[in-house]
Write a structure and sequence with these properties.
Blueprint (H helix, E strand, L loop, with lengths): L1 E4 L6 H5 L9 E4 L5 E6 L5 E6 L2 E8 L4 H10 L7 H6 L3 E8 L2 E5 L9 E5 L2 E5 L2 H11 L10 H6 L20 E2 L4 E5 L5 E5 L10 H17 L5 E5 L4 H12 L3 E7 L8 H10 L5 E5 L29 H13 L4 E3 L4 H5 L4 H9 L5 H11 L3 H9 L4 H10 L27 H18 L8 H23 L6 E3 L5 H8 L3 H4 L7 H7 L5 H4 L8 H18 L4 H4 L5 H9 L9 H15 L7 H4 L5
Parallel strand pairs: 13-14, 13-16, 14-15, 16-17
Antiparallel strand pairs: 1-3, 1-9, 2-3, 4-5, 5-6, 6-7, 7-11, 8-9, 8-10, 11-12
Helix pairs in contact: 6-7, 6-17, 6-19, 11-16, 14-15
């Protein structure tokens, strides 16, 4: 699906004209007759509700009560009164409204569906992807139509593990903005635009049984919105993906599961996946165990499309995902469910202890001690982290001073506002200066607020957004295979419900993901819910690095990142040849490989809106 959103402006028809030249382009109009939505989508991907001069479009996977939406459109006196519609729909989708000359556009809270916008010929236009928007806007401004890459923001993508909020949202394409989390974009009849915050994270104060029921209902509705045809799903053996398989089965889906056997024999994922498969007799089960198949860190990933947005997170196992989705497509699947979001929403973040000690100073001491011993944190770092009261803006600025310091070790309790980002040792001085400048300017000029005043709530939203961004890009990268990648745990309704869980209810001694377990009890068999272990994939990382080291070294002979002055190829080559005893030492390579692979792919022709303007896909 590719689409653009135009304001109900006299300038819109001229702006849209280059997009409508291709015969297979679809157009939905404002009541005025001016173009509103232009792009390509399947019939089942668009639900359109109209009443008088007002209309609302839901693009994506959801179930819409038409009568309820019609009533909301009739009764609403402003765009803001459509918030209740946005809060009520299950699934993952874009919501776009045409309302008395005004236009509203938004994606999902996780950004798995995102809105980008730019100035195009004097009016603001929006789209579901940034590169095609940048190209189109450049053409309308009278430029040569070649979108430019912001090299400073590309340098930011070298950070390990991820760039911090809010810089993580910024597209690498110049002239394009991404809509903020929990915001809607409003386009006025003159083509002007503004971002309006319509959603904020809930307080974590809902009783256990009540919130478990909310999560259950949201998951059932979200998975149900995706099960109209053959659906495939990961069956890793872990609680998250396994729960989705049982939810899809309960929804009556024609289900195909896929399990990839881990390299490490100590990883018991396969044992648990087999137990689950026996409890899903109506599903078709596929198992992959080709030792000569795709591995992590394969450099052939540049042959894929998916260069629309920027460097692909999780690029390390891109080749594996390509094979998986090709296999699922051959089985008739058009939608593949992934358990992404389960760890983020139902696992325990270290910052939960920071939050707990403020709500229950004395009652939290035993839990803090238990977590410190379990994670082998030093007493000094634990006490320092729990006592820290640094504001978010101050924390963001301070990260600029630590970019080249050694990464935190296993004994460090990370209780700040986010992960401690570091640039790899092969980043050039120019790259370090660029990233440092971006961090300081953002902190000092924008004084950004966190998602929530509580660190645990902020970090949960931040990680959900990171996962949503990765899912969005993953789906775009493999769209040509005909199978959509979907993560029901990242649906708005699920995210909202999970964020309302009390901190103390997340920290149940001896219980793994207690709230998810409560929510799916009765759908997922007790035998499966009894699992307490979790798979670990260091073996895949070391195998991939060992098998692909030669290709990775060959990249150093002509690094695109080196041409831009961002990476020292000799330093990268030396690091690749050096010994590594822990899998965390491999993490810094992932973002560098993603950036390099992306730079090698951006010269390939873009699909979607770019082709609407007359280019070949």
């Amino acid at each position: 699906m590719d689409f653009v959103v135009l304001p109900d402006s006299p300038a819109a028809p001229t702006a849209a004209e280059p997009l409508t030249r291709a015969a297979d382009v679809r157009v939905v109009h404002h009541a005025s007759g001016r173009p509103w939505l232009v792009g390509r989508w399947a019939d089942e991907e668009l639900t359109l509700v109209s009443t008088g001069a007002r209309r609302l479009a839901v693009l994506g996977r959801s179930t819409v009560d038409r009568h309820r939406v019609e009533r909301a459109l009739v009764q609403a006196r402003s765009l803001s009164q459509l918030d209740d519609v946005a809060r009520s729909l299950p699934g993952c989708f874009h919501l776009v409204a045409s309302f008395d000359g005004w236009t509203r556009a938004q994606g999902s809270l996780s950004t798995a569906r995102q809105i980008f916008y730019a100035d195009a010929g004097g009016i603001t236009v929006a789209a579901d992807g940034p590169r095609r928007l940048a190209q189109w806007a450049s053409t309308l401004r009278g430029d040569d139509g070649t979108p430019a890459v912001d090299q400073d923001l590309l340098a930011l993508r070298l950070l390990t593990p991820v760039p911090p909020w809010p810089l993580s949202l910024r597209p690498v394409w110049s002239g394009v903005s991404a809509l903020g989390v929990g915001c809607r974009l409003e386009l006025d009849p003159d083509g002007g635009a503004r971002e309006v915050r319509w959603w904020r994270p809930p307080e974590p104060d809902v009783p256990t049984e009540q919130v478990a029921e909310r999560i259950r209902e949201a998951l059932l509705a979200g998975v149900g919105a995706r099960t109209g045809a053959t659906v495939s799903a990961d069956l890793s053996g872990g609680m998250d993906s396994t729960s989705l398989c049982f939810l899809a089965d309960a929804a009556g889906a024609d289900l195909v599961t896929h399990h990839w056997k881990p390299e490490d024999r100590a990883n018991d994922d396969t044992e648990w996946a087999e137990r689950a498969a026996r409890q899903l007799p109506a599903a078709r089960h596929r198992v992959g165990a080709d030792r000569n198949g795709p591995t992590w860190y394969e450099t052939t990933a540049t042959a894929d499309s998916g260069h629309e947005e920027g460097p692909l997170p999780w690029a390390r196992n891109r080749a594996h995902m390509r094979r998986l989705l090709s296999t699922m497509a051959a089985d008739g699947s058009r939608c593949h469910l992934l358990g992404i979001g389960g760890d983020e929403l139902f696992g325990v973040l270290p910052t939960a202890l920071w939050s707990l000690v403020r709500d229950h100073p004395l009652g939290s001491l035993s839990r803090i001690h238990r977590f410190r011993v379990l994670n082998r944190w030093t007493l000094t770092s634990t006490v320092r982290g729990l006592a820290d009261r640094t504001s978010f803006a101050a924390w963001l600025r301070s990260t600029a001073d630590r970019l080249t310091e050694p990464a935190p070790g296993p004994g460090d309790a990370l209780l700040g506002w986010g992960w401690e980002p570091r640039l790899p040792p092969w980043a050039t001085v120019e790259a370090v200066d660029a990233v440092r400048r971006l961090l300081r300017e953002t902190a000092e000029r924008e004084h950004p607020d966190p998602h929530h005043r509580d660190r645990a709530q902020h970090q949960m939203v931040d990680i959900v957004v990171q996962s949503g961004t990765a899912m969005r890009q993953l789906d775009a990268a493999f769209a040509h295979l005909g199978v959509a990648c979907e993560a029901p745990f990242l649906d708005d309704r699920v995210v909202e419900a999970a964020l309302s869980v009390r901190i103390e209810d997340r920290l149940v001694s001896g219980d793994f993901k207690p709230m998810l377990r409560r929510a799916v009890r009765g759908i997922v068999p007790e035998e499966i819910l009894a699992r307490r272990s979790k798979g670990e994939f260091s073996a895949e990382a070391f195998q991939g690095m060992r098998r692909n080291r030669g290709d990775l070294l060959a990249l150093c002979d002509d690094l695109r990142l080196s041409r831009l002055g961002l990476v020292d190829p000799d330093a990268l080559r030396t690091a690749l040849l050096g010994p590594k005893s822990q899998s965390r030492q491999l993490v810094p390579y992932e973002n560098t490989l993603a950036c390099e692979s992306w730079l090698r792919s951006v010269a390939a022709p873009a699909s979607g809106v770019a082709s609407l303007a007359g280019e070949n896909p």
